[in-house]
Amino acid sequence: MSDGNSDLAKIVDNSEEKNSQLQDKPPLDCGGDPPGKKYKGDDDPNATTDEKAPIARHPDGDKDQHVMNFEVSYPPGGADAGPEGGERAEWGNKVEFLLTCVGYAVGLGNVWRFPYLCYKNGGGAFLLPYCLMLVVVGLPCFFMELSFGQFASVGPLTIWRISPLFKGLGYSMVMVSLVLSVYYNVIVAQCLFFLASSLQSRVPWADCGHSWNSWRCREFEPKSANSSLIKPDANSTGLSLENGTNIVTSFFADNCSFDSNDTATKCRTPAEEFYEDFVLKITDGIDQPGEFNWLLTLALLAAWIIVAVVLIKGIQSLGKVSYFTASFPYIMLSILLIRGATLPGSLDGVIFYVKPEWSRLKDYKVWMEAATQIFFNLSCCNGGLIAMSSYNKFRNNCQQDAIFVAVVNALTSVFAGFVIFCNLGFMAHQKQLPVADVAKGGPGLAFIVYPEALTHLPLTPMWAVLFFIMMATLGFGSQFSIVETVLSAFQDEMRVKGIINPASKLQAIVYRVAVCAILFIVGLSMMYGGGMFLLNLIDNAVSTFPLLVCGFMELFVIMFVYGYDHFAEDIKMMVGGSPNIYWRATWKVVTPVILVVLILIMAIFNEPVTYGDYVYAMPFQIMSHLIGVFIIMWIPGYYIYKYCREGGFVLMKEFHKPAEEWGPAQRTDREEFLENLAKRTDSMDGGANFYQSS
């Protein structure tokens, strides 16, 4: 075992040997800077600029080498490099980062998915597996990704310098965000569509009689035991009355009208028909495209224009917008909760929401849904957290940030549940139905059930406007970060490869607008009548299984290929203290085991993809699986490509090591990292054995 000084000497000797080899090479191209330009850290007391020294490249090779001894540098990366490409941009302050992370993690799923899962899986009892999965799966992955991105200060593709054979994992993560950005903005567009439709004296989903309504449309009015229901007459085109005794509870839940043969037919509310027949123009299945929806397309165009404008300057503009997108939903949720709590029947809704059914905890599906909901809610393992934290200051305490954001996200989900079920309890009271008959999850809750509940309130348009502003804000808060993940990931790569000039603001703007335009065009495939079926199919394919696989592989690479001890030392450099036993136990044992179990359960007990009562045909079930496999296959695919292109079995262990460019981005932090590295023991592959051999 060699001591720290000998290891340090090895690194310095290696650097000196490489520099001596440079003397026989043609002159280095340092990017065309003026002869008199100097840089801090260049052993020149007269240096006047804060920029990093430029990158020196061999004309006969693509390996980047810094002119100085004992330092490996690399092209200035980042989606938001400084005006001359020297320093990667940082958040204006820590509040901007925290608010952006909260806006990213707290999205539409907190409002329309968690409350539904809670009542479906045992009410208050579901909070036990949910909180447990937060502690043993969600929080460890969240902190790992924040510290990973903050340490390297690069995006989710470039960061895999940590072990270049696994760069395919970065591509898989970015592919998830890429696909998610397409269909998530379609949902945001639907929020904008409802918002625009609310700006009138009477909301259009309050009654029947519109051009999109069918004969099955019924405006509900509470019925007494001796009241009557309207039904079609067998002998005329008019309507006759039939006694409605004991049929009230099935009025909208199941059957409410009869054809000429007294065959029961399910009625539909005005809200259902407005959403499905006007907003979506939905068909009977994914194999029936239907007509193109121009009005929804305009909403989608507006959504992408907003995204492009907000992200045109990267995190400088995103950080400022986050003050609104992260805080406004809480103001609105509080207002809606106060209003909902004053309505008759709200207490019944709350009781239905929180009443525990402990027997449900015996079902493995409850635990699986708790884990996947945590993963989806926290936006883990799709590259976004790496991208957002890469703009942090190197010494930022990301451990505190991880705990804060994760706890806020969980509390927001619970808080949103009270808001939703107060109003669902009121709606059930008005209709004289059990709460279970009006509760739905997913888009049906946000675009059918809740809007219908608002029609029972005075000043319906005002409440509708406030609700859909909140929904759009929640959607944009997540969408901004999702798209920024994609933009920064590929922009980092193109800057490293010299495709984009870091000094050109115009190129960066054109690139960002072009990507948003392309994603808008791809999203047009979901503007047809069958588009919602396509959206649901893709959502099922990318939002669960691939994320779990990416999460496990990320843990595996960082904890076992790079090594927990190295990672712990890196965190110690940033926050001043080593991770405690909780982080060590979860990262190395608990979280990987749980993720493997979840992956196996999902693979073995795979359920068919459905949308409401619609079950996708087998070809589309296969298509869903192929989409998920395509995303995951980037991991082994790139591994095999790199292995075959670069070496073979003999060099495999060498290729698992970090590339020379791995480490902190800033000069002073990198020098400290290399000094610290030289002191690490041989058992940690410290010193000269750390990087790949050149």
TrEMBL record:
SUPFAM superfamilies according to UniProt: SNF-like
Organism lineage string: Eukaryota, Metazoa, Spiralia, Lophotrochozoa, Platyhelminthes
Top-level lineage group: Eukaryota
Any one annotated GO CC term: plasma membrane
Topology with respect to the bilayer: Multi-pass membrane protein
InterPro entries: Na/ntran_symport, SNS_sf
Disulfide bond positions: 208-217
Region of interest: Disordered: 1-86
Pfam families: SNF
Family: Belongs to the sodium:neurotransmitter symporter (SNF) (TC 2.A.22) family.
An MF annotation (GO) of this entry: amino acid:sodium symporter activity
Name by which UniProt lists this protein: Transporter
One GO term (biological process): amino acid import across plasma membrane
Transmembrane annotation, as ranges: 97-115, 127-148, 169-195, 294-315, 327-354, 374-391, 403-426, 462-487, 508-529, 541-564, 585-605, 617-641
Annotated Basic and acidic residues bias: 35-66
Keywords carried by this UniProt record: Disulfide bond, Glycoprotein, Membrane, Metal-binding, Sodium, Symport, Transmembrane, Transmembrane helix, Transport
Subcellular location, record wording: Membrane
Binding locations of Na(+): 103, 105-106, 110, 409, 474, 478
